[in-house]
Specification:
Layout (H helix, E strand, L loop, with lengths): L1 E7 L3 E8 L5 E8 L12 E2 L1 H19 L5 E5 L5 E3 L9 E2 L16 H6 L11 H10 L9 E3 L1 H9 L6 E3 H4 L5 E2 L4 E2 L1 H7 L8 E3 L4 E5 L2 E4 L2 E2 H7 L8 E6 L3 E7 L9 E4 L5 E7 L4 H16 L9 H7 L6 E3 L14 E3 L8 H27 L5 E5 L1 H5 L1 H11 L3 E2 L6 H13 L6 H4 L6 H5 L1
Parallel strand pairs: 1-5, 5-15, 9-12, 16-22, 22-23
Antiparallel strand pairs: 1-2, 2-3, 4-7, 6-8, 10-11, 13-14, 16-17, 17-19, 18-19, 20-21
Length: 451
Amino acid sequence: MAVLALDIGTTKICALVMDEESGAVFETVSAKNAFLPAAHPWERSQDPEKIFSVVNELVSGLTGKYRAFRCIGISGQMHGILYVDSSGRAISPLYTWQDAGAALPMENGESYSQYLAKFSPGPVAPGYGLATCFYHHSVKQIPPDAVKICTIGDYVAMRLCNAPLPVLHATNAGGLGFFDLRRGGFDEKKMELAGLDPSLLPRTVSGGEVTGECAYGPVCVSVGDNQAGFLGSVRDSQRSVSVNIGTGSQISLVSSGFENAGVLEARPFFEGYYLFVGASLCGGRSYAILEKFFRQVLEMAGFPGDRPLYDVMDSQAGETDITVNTLFAGTRSDPSVRGSILNISEDNFTPARLISGFLNGAVQELYNYYEPVKKKEGKTRELVVGAGNGIRKSRPLRRIISEKFGMPLAIPVYQEEAAYGAALFALTCTGYFKTVFEAQGIVKYVSDLEN
């Protein structure tokens, strides 16, 4: 029987149909997601009703072929929030993870998120749901009829089965702020001390749960896109490291405890485990910055600069002694940090060495997250699993990752990793698999097909 999975991303909404036995993907459809016009430069919001309408269109098109599904899994952007009323309808935009209201200064000069960091037991950066909520509270922007906050994945799940209230999974809850990993829930006392209203939080669950039934099948609680993406791309959680390079870049690995996280952020995972995550704000975009620079040089010389140069750049990548720090967009903890290009001489300042320097810099930034964890764990993982368009499209990038981490690199067969992971989680919720780790056993790598 088939499984339907949805991934509500910032730029794209995806629906995937998977075979429960083999894990084969029958079909994938998607549609673009769009931002609402912004009244202020810090606003990055979307229309939840439009998103739900797009979901309905995608699902309706698939149900004409597959009729009913064993279950429906959902993942979505895990930091953003919207407000719902007592009937379970959105009464605000979706304030995405890119919304920077909480980065604005308060009267004393510190930002709203900096103020909250004094109280929160975990990260609460700008764009985290409760940082955004506190900003709205401070400027009296919370809708008066608001009963709960929720993520967009929670909202879609609630609307599909016409439930009156959202349900929040721990993998999403951990991305809102004030989530205490030791207790496995929100620290409501510290929320109150900071000036936040805990009653706005939905019921939070840590295990698999069916939110309700809809015409297409049972709808499972939505999970965070980061955790779902790891689940849907890694076959063996205990012995693998996941590296995802697209517009941004991210490294993720699973651990049974959160004490060894080091500079990585520890997030709730499944089955009582934790996902260690290190995220670069620039990542793969650093390569896009260099590509744009080369096109501008062509235009300056009178040649057309409208043709993408990535394939040409990849063909030139090789050895380099130029060191590129790719923190061009800063870090979550310090947005003011900037990148650098070092060790330039009159002999090595060539396009080819600069290209290689940028690729090495993007990988080095991720390895810097991993190295302290490797030392603390006292063990070496055996495989790097690579995902994201940057890795899939760039052969030299794949080579650099494998060399830097000192492990073979594997690439998942199916590209919509978060949707695939949501499907695996849904199969666990409905009892087809006993654990998510058992479900991961059906993940396939490109190398499996080549052997």
